[in-house]
Specification:
Elements lengths: L1 E5 L9 E2 L2 E4 L3 H4 L4 E3 L9 E4 L3 E7 L2 E6 L3 E6 L20 E7 L3 E6 L4 E5 L3 E15 L2 H11 L5 H25 L11 H16 L4 E12 L2 H16 L3 H15 L4 H12 L2 H14 L12 E3 L6 E3 L17 E3 L6 E3 L13 E3 L6 E3 L14
Parallel strand pairs: 3-5
Antiparallel strand pairs: 1-8, 2-3, 4-9, 5-8, 6-7, 6-9, 10-12, 11-12, 12-13, 14-15, 16-17, 18-19
Helix pairs in contact: 3-4, 6-7, 7-8
Length: about 375
Amino acid sequence: MVFGKKGGDIPSKGGSVFGSTTFEWEDQFKQGNIMWKVPRLIRLNDNVVVREDETAVFFRDGKAIWYIDKPGRYALTDLNAPIVGGLVKALTGIQQQAYVYYLQRRIIDGKFGSKEPYAFRDKDFDIVMLRLFGDMRYRISDPSIFINQFVGTFNAETSADVESRIRDQVVLLIYNILGKMKDQGVSVLDLPSNLLNIEEAVLASSKAAFDQYGIEINKISGLNISLPEAVQKAIDTRSSMKVVGANYLQFQAGQAMVDAAKNPGGTAGAGVGLGMGLGAGAGMAYPMASNITQGMSQQPPQQERKVKKCPKCQTEVDENAKFCPSCGYNFESDQLMKCPSCGKDIPKTSKFCPECGKPIVTKCLKCGTEIPAGAKFCPNCGEKVV
């Protein structure tokens, strides 16, 4: 049985010629779909209609047997053709196990997004859970590899199955790029300014990743990497402080004044109103503004505020702050130790000193054996590490 081309007009899906059924991929179901499977087994004298933007694939026994990429209407004929062999024996009533798949030859626009967050270990914020999404444009570059890989290997029956795997592979490719950037010292703060570079890197490495599927990625765009709310707030605060040229205490004091001024019953609001009425407000406003711009550290605030020093950069921050606005240090993981080689303060989880580069080891107080960082007991005598 082979496909033989027939002339004449192209009939619609479900039409028949001398008892045969004609199948075609209707336009209303083609938009945005990369593949369509004819919903039943192919029989003798069935017809398939192929348009210019399609490839029809005759599929049997887990692999593609025949491809049709020229427009026209084709019918299954000739029982003795070697393409199907002895499987099809219409006279004995044995039904062939053969299907036809339609493949889209046009470029497909789709979207991708992470199903699970990506753990990005940052030097300032420790582990940050990132989520990403964006747009992609792709097409089938090799129908033979595509149909055998997705239909034969992955058992993908629908266009949604295929697109889901493509989206997952794009996300994995972006995760791989982010991992390389992290190893090069890129901080989570640098990611927003590197989105275009990430898109270009993904596009450059997509050929090696997708050639095995018969897929070509033409474009990656609209990439968005979202940060946790607490980290995003710390970044926004740091950016605002840099713009106004204030340290953390100055910035917080200025924000408190603005918030109080918005409240008609607040202290700052009453002071502004009183100054406007008696002419004293102008005299009070100037020194307050001067203190904020020149540095409130030269004139202590009227109400004592509880502060703490960042162990990394020594900046004074609010006692309840979770992150240092100057260097991004995470106070919730406040675990520092002295490097045994250079004496610098470093995180306890460090395996190597970021200052001198030497491995971090401690000695057991009982037997003197070197204990690797993070160990809870001595590997020699079992003494608990203090």
